[in-house]
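Sanity check

After download, print the first record. It should look like this:
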Amino acid sequence: MSESLHPIGQKVDPALLVQTHQVGVWRYLRSLGCDSHEAEDLTQETFLKVLEKPFQEMGEAAARSYLLRVAKHQLIDRRRREGRSIAVENIEQVEEFWNRHASNQHGARSGQDKQRDLIDTLRHCLEGLTARAQTALRMRFEDHCTREQIAEALGIGPHGAKNLMQRAKQQLKQCLDDKQGLDDKQAEADRPSSD
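Expected structure tokens:
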């Protein structure tokens, strides 16, 4: 189990806060559809925003949750300034996924190790989708294409593109849930007996 940065309620060393949470914030922003450079910019903006006022230690999980919330709002504000929309349902799905899988801090392994495993699992699950589904999701979340652009590229109607992406996201969720279930069973089997 990871130790707290400092006793609860005391000021946090900004360098330690960044060192502890920078990778997690960056990966979270990438999962919301930011490219690598934008995720770096927004990660820096997130820490600058948080550190405008003295940051009090609140425990690692609470600090992570707070930083991710600030990062999400930084992204939404940027999209508004750019005149671009961001699909709320996509943010909600990513948050649900992140909270259920990436933020699970039980056990001795570090959060960064768990996040790396999660990214690997997500890649594996993505490879299990059809080529069309993979293309649709990559166009949507990596290239920020509209549903109409995806539909045109795949030679289907916008409604068909929406259905394809919904089915693909459900398949990814099921794959991740199945993997999490296997991990939970393995952890239970590995736990020493209390007898």
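If your output differs, re-run the checksum step. Summary of this record's structure: Helices lie at 14-31, 36-50, 60-82, 88-102, 111-127, 131-141, 147-154, 158-190.
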